[in-house]
Structures are given as structure tokens and as C-alpha cells.
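Q: Hi! First time doing this. I have a protein sequence and I read that you can turn it into a structure. Is that right? Here it is:
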Amino acid sequence: MSHRIFAARRILTMNPSQPEATHIAVRDGRILGVGSLETLSDLGDFELDERFADKVILPGFVEGHSHALEGVLWEYPYAGFFPRQDPDGHTWPGLTDIAALQHHLGEQVAKLPADSPLIAWGFDPIYFPQRRLDRDDLDAVDAERPIVVIHANLHMMTVNGAMLRFAGLESQAGIEGVRTFDDGRPNGELREMAAMFAIFDILDLDLFDRGSEEATLERYARIGQRHGVTTLTDLYNPLSETGVESMQRTCNRDDVPMRLAPAMSALTYTPEDGIERVLGCRDKGSDKLHFGLVKLMTDGSIQGYTARLKWPGYHDGSPNGMWNAEPERLTEIVHRYHQAGLQLHIHTNGDEAVELMLDAIESALELWPRADHRHTLQHCQIIDHAQLKRAARLGVCLNMFANHLYYWGDIHRSRTLGFERCQRLEPLASADRLGIPIAAHCDAPVTPLAPLFTAWCAIARQTASGDVLGPLEALSVERALRLITLDAAYTLKLDDCVGSLEVGKFADMAVLDEDPHDVPLERLASIGVAATVVGGHVFSNA
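A: Yes, that's right. Below is the predicted 3D structure, encoded as C-alpha cells:
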């Protein structure tokens, strides 16, 4: 049987037994062999494909924490502080003051039918220290039309007076997360899932369920393809019946360049219903669609002041953050899903949330010992060294939000965390020294989906202003590349089939214009991705 052999200038395999090669043989969507042309010559008849002869091939990048919401939100106007490129290659400018935001929203309003709400996303109030965006600012854009501005961290939003009235929140200031002016009136800022749900409910809009729609998934895959990503996650998916059917239809098509691992949002269901739903999806998976992951939200975001921090709390004295459910309920959920044999991916931004979840995992393991559970703490931005040692002892994986260093490092240094805690922001090197399975992620759409940038963040640890935070936590280029390939695959329990270029694994590859080892560090993130290969199918980025 004939097969295809791809030639390359260099192949970085992430296989410790054979780290480099020049040729890779592919048959039936899988890797038949990796080595030199001479060592592959005994595999039988082949077609030599030299289109990548001057390129560098890596395993297809694995994004261990992102959201298909990245494919949804581009249907709405972007309103963030940093410039950002959309799926069509258009760059939206950054909005660096509230007046610019209002002008931008006004332009978008003019494009809408009279009865349509305006929904924008990406706004980050932490970059506007003079004052918070409020309902009055948005009423100045349009006082009659409901306006919703979703914050970059996805844990908060600001709405105008019309939206508050429409959602029945004008007189509901007692609800946790509904912020108020000094006189007690809701000021338009809504924090965390319970408060935001009222808005989504009245608009009949489930953004996370929309992440399973065919057009959304196609867009999501296209964004990933441009950056060499072959395995994507959707780490907060309701797994609705229609959503699962849509994922099956879309992901299993050869022309959709991604494998997808959705994680069911645990707080959407009772543990009984959630466990039944995840287990019921397991036989609906395929080579390109992997079910079985569960996502649990504990606290919020540090830059949104909704993360839960241990003493002394926020550096600038702001009150501690919020739990998305009572700590006792969060602990019970960990116990129930652990007992059911499922893998948990747990959002823990603050170190108090880390502590609660380590306690929960430890007690679950005492009650129901499980080998190789791979429960993964996601973000764990300021996990301390005692907690790292506990995580190592408990067999917990840590997937750290390395992009956070660039986008919010300056804010954390000056306002939320202070100098010392910022030295262990995303402590990847310390975790690696302890032998903890680690990965790094972008949390798209919170930050852009671009694994080489994520790797650069883990190496350079540079903030947007150019400061370096925690230089002793920096990784080497080689180690950082593993974070976005084999290590990320390990946290998803997919390292047996993706993440490295080895015989029997899926033929998933990122084809780069340059070798990440050879370029200056400041150019690592901008290396061109010439093509992405998924199951042997080549998707050119030209």
C-alpha cells in the first residue's frame, strides 16, 4: 500500500527517543514512520512530498484551555484595549479610553436595526484606572437600545439602563454580583455567572451553547489553523443534545481542520444529571471529537477583582473576590465527578481557590483512591510553593495562563498583587522542578489563540510594558514548546494519539517558516505558520 512521505528542513518530534528527523511518513491519517528518507525506505511504495522541504515541522499545537466562544464573539464588535485580528485577518484597533469606546459603540449602533440590542466584547476595565465604565456611559451612546459590553475576562459585563430594565435588574441590587452606585441604584456592572445569566436569559442568548454551532466551529477551526493548532478545547460547553449533534456533524468532516475536546460545564447541572450527560456522550466521540472532560468554575479573575485570594488579599486593598458556587457545593461536585471516574478541569485563578480545590481533591482521593486521575487546575496564577508541593503529591496537573504575564502583568505588579507575588505569577519552572505535569494556554477569547505567543510568554515572562516578572520561573525554548504540544495533550488524556510525532499517532503537524530554536527570542511569537496538517490533510495558510 502506498503512502506519502513529507520532507522538511527539520522535524522537531517531541519524542524523547528521537527528537529530530527530516522525513515523516503518513498513511490513513496516521504516522507510519519518522526519520531520514533512508530509514523510511523499507516501508514500501511511497510518494515523496517536498512542498515543506525548506520548512520546520512540529507536532500540531494543542490548545489545552480555550473556548469555542472565540468563534462566536467575532459576530459581535470587538471593544478591547489591545489591537486584535479577527478570523478574516482584519485588525481591530485597541480602545484606550472610554471616549474612544463610546465612539466605537456609536458607530456599531448605527449599523443595527432599531430593535436590536448591541453586544460588544473584549472591554477590560482594569486599563481604565480613573473610573469604572457604568450605565451612564453606555446610555450616552444609546439610552433606548439595550447595550451589553462583555469584559475580556468573560466573568463580568457592563450594561446600560435599558438593558437593566429589560432584564428586571433595576430593582434587584440585592443580587450578588449586581454592583451599585453609592445611592444603591445598579450601576450597570454585573459580576460572575449568576448576575450575567439574567442578561443572557432575557436575550435568549446562550453564548457557550452557540459554541457548538456549525458556523462557529468552522470559524474556530480556521482561527486555530492559521496558528498551527490541530487540537482545540472548548472548556465550558453545556453539551446540549443539539450541540453534541452539531459537534459530531462538523468535527468529523475532513475539511474542518481540528480535533475538539469539549468539557461539560459542571455548574449547569446537578451532579447526577451532569455525570449522566458526560457518560452518555462518550460513545458519540470519534478520532476528531473527544468527550469525557468536565469543567468546574470556582472563583473569577484577578484583574476583575473577582478571584479569591488568600491573606492579605488584593494589593490595593480591594475586597476579596467571589465564588461561583458555595465552597461546600464546589467540594461536593469534585467528590461526585471524581467518584464517577471523570476528569475535572478546574478554574482556579486565586490561591484561595487553589487551596479549596486541593483540599477537595485530597479528600476525594482519600475516599476513592484513583490512579492517573489527571485532574487539572486551570490558570492557577499565583499558586504558592506549599500548594505546588501538594499538587505534586496529589498527582494534579497544572495548566497555567502564560499569556496573562503579558496582558495583565503590569496591572498585577502595581495594583492587584504587588511585587513579591508577581515573582511567582504562573510559576512554571518551579512546577516543572517538582515534576508536576504542566501546560500553558491562551484561554481564547480572553487572549488571542496563538500558541507560539504563549510559548514566548513562558520563556520571556515579559509584560506589555517590557518588564520581566519572575525571571527564575522562565522556561527554555525546548521546554516551552512541549507545553503547547505533548504536555497539553497529557492534560487532556490525549497524549497517546496527539502531541508528538511518533508511529501510530495522528498525522497532525504545524509547519513553520523558521525553527523556534534559531530565531531571536523577540521573534519567536511571529514565526510564520505555512500550513497545518490534520490527519494527513494539508491546510495551507498561504
